[in-house]
Amino acid sequence: MDASGRGRTAAGARRGGFRTERAPDGRYRWQLKAPNGRVVAVTAAQFDTPGEAERGFEGLRAGASELTARITHVRDGIGWIWVVPGTRALPEVRSSRAYERYATCQSAFRRFVVLLGKQPPREPRTPDCGNGRSG
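Request: output the structure for the sequence above.
Response:
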């Protein structure tokens, strides 16, 4: 723990940035955290390997200035979320939480784009061995 009584991440003091994680079904997804450690966005898609998740993030990061979001009311509950549509109108990435006000959701999306644009380019991962992806 640090002096504030808060825990640290496995990487030490680094709390923000890009991170891949394994979902319960064994597939991978990514999330982007703000410097304060709060999750800002999560990928809606799930990937077969961590390398695929990283490549998906890198493609989004490279085009950050061109992104547009669809702001929509949540289905179950109260609030608004932003969604960046991907291929076949499926979501590419979405807000990590619902916002009480439409304007707050718009502002959160703009902050996401700025944070995404500030992420350093990712080093290409070596090709995933045993991908086993069927297509």
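Strands lie at 17-22, 28-33, 39-43, 70-73, 80-85, 91-95.
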